[in-house]
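User: Can you fold this complex?
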Amino acid sequence: MELSLRERQKERRRSEIYEAAIALFKESGFENTTATEIARASGVSRGTFFNYYPYKEAVLLDYGSLVVKSLEAEAGRRLDRGQPPLDVLYDIWSLLADENTKERDLFPPLAYEVMNPNPERAQTAYRALRLSGVVELILRPLHDAGELRSDLSLARISNLIADTYLLVALRWSAYGTGRSLHDELRLSLDLLLTGALKR
Amino acid sequence: MELSLRERQKERRRSEIYEAAIALFKESGFENTTATEIARASGVSRGTFFNYYPYKEAVLLDYGSLVVKSLEAEAGRRLDRGQPPLDVLYDIWSLLADENTKERDLFPPLAYEVMNPNPERAQTAYRALRLSGVVELILRPLHDAGELRSDLSLARISNLIADTYLLVALRWSAYGTGRSLHDELRLSLDLLLTGALKR
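Assistant: Here's the predicted assembly.
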């Protein structure tokens, strides 16, 4: 599909605002960055910023969505190469841990967005960050081979695993724990997979 | 410890405000009830209400805290009677499901409070609603008998189980699912316990 000149201009403007916002978040922290500052840094008015992103957290959703999409592509490549699904899941979890460890401050506001009391915002966030979809993609071969427990659907098992990721990473990002996020995530994934596989 | 007259009066006032607030929440919903209405219904000024409860959600924490304490007492009685720990956990989960099903509208704002982006509010909520403490109490005999996996501490396993309860119940309360909350909770508990027990 060919984009019109106007659409391409909108796309470019959006990506300029996105880049300026993420740079500011990384520099000064998410909470300390205002919409006015993002607008100034990307050379648009405050009103224009809100045309592209109705709230500040929406910029983070674009960031999270890129992360999830790149993980999904990576998972697909690994499965296509014949890597065993469980190994793929551990590797993807480890890549996620890398990204979260690097961008520790961006994670809590992203997680809170998924759990926003406003159902529309929560659903928007949930759709942008379909981590459970990545888990489902990875576990599907095991499901089709009858290796997963059958009293819970593949979608529910995938949700449980993705939700646990969210809470373990949130606890780690917001409060810190003695262990690295890698270890925290690996151990909780281990427990869940032991529970998810047929004995 | 003897309470002074002044302290007893404060306790009574607090419980009057609590009863009036919970009655209003059940009648009109949490979101639709204002601090002014709670104050009016309990015969105090708005300022007095905020002296007892600094925010509306704090009233819900008292409610949740009572629920958790009564479950903890029930779990203790069942363990003392010699009921096997895993049975106790399933029964306690079932009692929780009853309470949540009955008070479906009170649960989401309570869960959001535990995940409040303001760390002080989140910690206050977490301390008021120590569900992971109840799980720990129930699983301790299994832990001491060496029946739980040893790469995660009892506290972390208990946290994972309590967190999963939170998210499964929140999803159910806020969005509904095809299954009863009883079934949702039992199935996810089953998966987690399979993962938590030594093979």
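The mean pLDDT of chain B is 91. The domain at 56-196 of chain B is CATH 1.10.357.10 (Tetracycline Repressor; domain 2).
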